[in-house]
Design goal:
Elements lengths: L2 H12 L3 E2 L14 E8 L3 E9 L4 E10 L5 E13 L9 E8 L5 E7 L5 E7 L6 E8 L2
Antiparallel strand pairs: 1-8, 2-3, 2-9, 3-4, 4-5, 5-6, 6-7, 7-8, 8-9
Length: about 140
């Protein structure tokens, strides 16, 4: 299976799904500028990234990607971008997308939502047909 296909499957599992466990209160999007550590886990892949996030919607990142069941580990590094989408009818929280464009791996994104803590982001996408989840936690570390 190609890496692009794996991430396409991951995106399909995550994006059209309904989030679980999120608060009904809408939290403001914190000032994202700074250094963040984000960990995202799914049945397909685990991602551990350090992101330098800039106010101009650009970022620099480095970290590792581990593919479940294959033992493949990629150390990735590169530039990217971030964006924020407003809540949709099924969700009360804004959606933050961090996209990394490394040279040695396909472009990929991780997604998180405000938690009410300006130094923390979290999201759990749940796919109702498969029961699978994609869970992401981010902490500001600088």
């Amino acid at each position: 299976m190609t890496f692009r296909l794996i991430f396409a499957v991951l995106a399909l599992v995550a994006l059209p799904s309904v989030s679980m466990g999120q608060s009904q209160q809408t939290y403001p999007v914190p000032n994202l500028a700074g250094v963040w550590r984000c960990v995202s886990n799914s049945p397909v892949v685990s991602i551990d990234l350090y992101l330098q996030v800039y106010p101009n919607q650009q970022l620099q990142g480095q970290g590792s990607i581990v593919y479940a069941g294959t033992g493949r580990i990629y150390n990735v590094q590169g530039g990217g971008a971030w964006s924020v989408s407003p809540p949709d009818p099924q969700e009360t929280q804004w959606l933050i997308r961090f996209q990394l464009m490394p040279q040695n791996h396909a472009v990929f994104s991780i997604f998180a939502r405000p938690t009410g803590d300006p130094n923390g982001l979290y999201n759990m996408f749940y796919h109702p047909q498969t029961g699978e989840t994609v869970e992401t936690s981010c902490a500001r570390i600088g």
